Structures are given as structure tokens and as C-alpha cells.
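Handout, section 4.2: multi-component inputs.
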Amino acid sequence: MPAASPAAEAPSDAALIAAWRGGDEQAASELVRRHARALARFLAGAGANDADLDDLVQETFIKAFRAIEGFRGQCQFRTWLFTIGGNVVRDAGRRAARRKVVALSEDLRSPEGDPQAVAEATEAEQRLNEGLQRLTRLQREVFLLRAQQGLEYDEIAAALGTTGGAARVHYHHAVRRLKEWLT
Amino acid sequence: MNEHELETLARGLGTARADRVDVERIARGVVAGLRQAPAGWRILWLRPATLRIAAVLVLLLGAGLLWRARVPPAAPVHPDHYIYEDLNGLSSDELRDVLSTLDQTLQDASPLPADDDLNDLSPDQLRAVLRSIEG
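Output:
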């Protein structure tokens, strides 16, 4: 009997999605394990409040699985997840603004309030976080998908429903504005 | 800061925080959340657009019922069927009985034969008389 191939040991995202559609909860759990940290990084860059990050990651996955019929493989599952995560962060910001417990702009721009996070975040990273919140949403998401997640422009464009050229323009605008902010 | 330094900084953004994410707890929470609410209907009904559409439909339905209650249905211009359609199965005597109930009307209607003359008519002729009455 030939040795099991690596592909057989680690099912693809598409296989796990198909299994989840068939009612396999373990497939959903495996997708969470596979993508949760990358999603958390993206949400942190997109402005998620540090204290809410775990909840926002969870909410993003639940929304994604419920809307899984809308995922037609136009991009990678992880990239599609990021776009849903962007909406979740935006909605969380609106909820926070309505509650008016903490002003959104202050709450989402930096990890203030969590001493551990403050200690970990370098000054430059904090400044970058602040600069990202000054970009338009599209500029921010394109920048994060490109610079933080290392995606190609075509993949970014497919996920955000734009063209590769437009994604490139958004990226360069973002870089220019961030450099101005950080200098 | 140049572009390369910016990208290097961006690559590490959020890494420390993401490392503290409790992935197993999130996985359990996701499965529990998916079990809780039946996808589809509950979400659909919570959408403001769905609620607005439902409210409009209820209003239209109510207005329709109110309109029907206030405005009586118009009587049909023509009856659904004609009398002569019921006459095919009648014998000569039965047809004469029917005609006798219409006697006065028949006489007023002028060109029709008098009662006595009806006795001489065949069933087909009697049916023809009734059809002419019905117009």
C-alpha cells in the first residue's frame, strides 16, 4: 500500500468546506484552527479592539459558515474570510460608537487598556496602527492583504470585487499616506 | 521610513496579539454558535429590509380585505347559463307546464302563440319558443 500523500493527511480548504456543507462540524473546527491566527492578525490591523479580538474572530467564522453558499472559489477561503472580517470589525465599531462607552477612534486605533499588549507592541507598530485607521477602508484592507498577508493583486481584487489595477492604485495611495504619517 | 521598512513592519503587525488567541476556544464557540441559530430564517427575519417588505405586504393585504368588505361584487352581466340548457331532458308535458307558468309574460310578449296553440307544438318547437323568450 503506498504511503499516504500529504494531501490526504491535510484535506484542502475546499474539501473541508464541502464536508461542513454536508454537516461535518469537525470540518468547521479544522478550518477555524487553520485560519484563526491569520484572521486575528488581519482584524488587529483592520482596527479591532484588542480586548474583543477573540470574539470578533469567532463572529467572523460564524458569519462565514452561515454565508458559505456565497463562496464560489473566486479567491482563497482565507482571503474571503478577511473580507467578512473587515465587515465584522466595521459593525463592531458602529456598535461601540452607539454605546458611546469608549470613543471609536480611540478604542480601535491602539491596544491601549491592555498592559500586556502595550508592552508587546512596539512604538512603530502602534504608529502604524494609528496610520492605518486614517486610511479609507479599501486602502487599509488592500494594504493589509498585500503587505501583511502577502497576497497578489489579482487575489486581492477578486476578494474585494475590484480590478488588479485598482487594487494596485489603492495600495500605493496607502503606502504614500502611511509613510507621511510615520515620518 | 522607506517602503521596504514599512512592509516589514506591516508583516509583523498583530502577530503578538494573534499568538494569544485561544484557537480551540474559538473553534468550540463557532460550532456552538452554528448549532444555536438555524441559519437562514432567523437571520433573514432580523434584517430590516425583510421586516419592511413583510410590513408592506400586511398593509396591502389588509387594504385589499377592507376594499372587498366595503365594495359589493358587481352582478354578472350575463347569467352563467341559459334556461334552455336545462330543457333538453324534459318531455312535452313538462315543457308545457313550464310554459304555462310564463303565460302572462308570453301573452305580453306579443308574437308568441296563445296557450291553446302550445298543445300543437312539438318538443323542438316548444324549445324554440323558450329560446326566443330568453333572447
